[in-house]
Design brief:
This protein has 202 residues and is an alpha+beta fold. It has one domain: YhcH/YjgK/YiaL (Jelly Rolls). It has five helices and twelve strands. The strands form three sheets. A six-stranded mixed sheet has the order 1-10-5-12-3-2, with helices on one face. Strands 4-8-7 form a three-stranded antiparallel sheet, with no helix packed on it. The protein is globular, with a radius of gyration of 20 Å. The protein starts with a helix and ends with a strand. The N terminus is likely disordered.
């Protein structure tokens, strides 16, 4: 009996190591993603409004794969008074999650560029002011500057869809998203913005 129990325990322990995580077991359906997204529990209580342009399916996948990274990113938003937070860089989780605060005038369209990243996802959160941002699939964009591994950036020309971000709104740009931030909606007024870099999971 004792040998049987030991063998049973061994099988159970081994199965724990061999069983894939929930994220690996299956991909969420569109209905499941929609339900998960609408609950907004993933925001962790942060005062943040996700923009309608966000790829919800990819957000759900990335959140499952790296939940701790996302929880720390949204905790940073929740736990800091972003309006009074000084310009500069802020560590969150080593090279996995880190933030920067900028406070500069928005730019004329021709002073901005299309870009994408491979190693990190951009979370761009408007603190004060308004800023226009463009987004377009990388697959439909034309490369004008090849990917630079050290800078984690490539540049493009693209058609794009453009949106105006207002305070507490955030955008998410995944490696499949070419994006064009910092565009003035008029007047080149100062925009205070938080950008959080979150490591991308293949």
């Amino acid at each position: 009996m004792k040998k049987y129990l030991i063998a049973l325990a061994s099988v159970f322990i081994l199965s724990c190591f061999l069983t894939p995580t929930f994220a690996q077991q299956k991909q969420l359906t569109k209905h499941q993603v929609k339900k998960w997204y609408r609950k907004k529990a993933w925001l962790g209580g942060a005062n943040a409004q996700p923009h309608s342009s966000i790829n919800k399916q990819e957000l759900a996948r990335q959140y499952q794969l790296n939940k701790a990274y996302w929880d720390k990113a949204f905790a940073f938003i929740k736990e800091h008074d972003l309006v009074t937070l000084a310009k500069g860089k802020y560590p969150i989780d080593g090279d996995n999650v880190f933030a920067s605060i900028t406070e500069d005038p928005s730019k004329d369209f021709d002073k901005t560029t299309w870009e994408s990243h491979r190693k990190y996802i951009d979370l761009q959160y408007i603190i004060t002011g308004e800023e226009k941002m463009g987004v377009w699939p990388v697959a439909k964009a034309t490369v004008i500057k090849e990917y630079d591994d050290k800078k984690d950036v490539a540049n493009y020309t693209a058609e794009g869809k453009f949106y105006v971000g207002t305070p507490t709104t955030f955008f998410l740009f995944f490696p499949t998203d070419a994006h064009r931030p910092n565009i003035t909606p008029g007047g080149n007024k100062v925009v205070k913005k938080l950008v959080i870099k979150i490591r991308y999971a293949d």
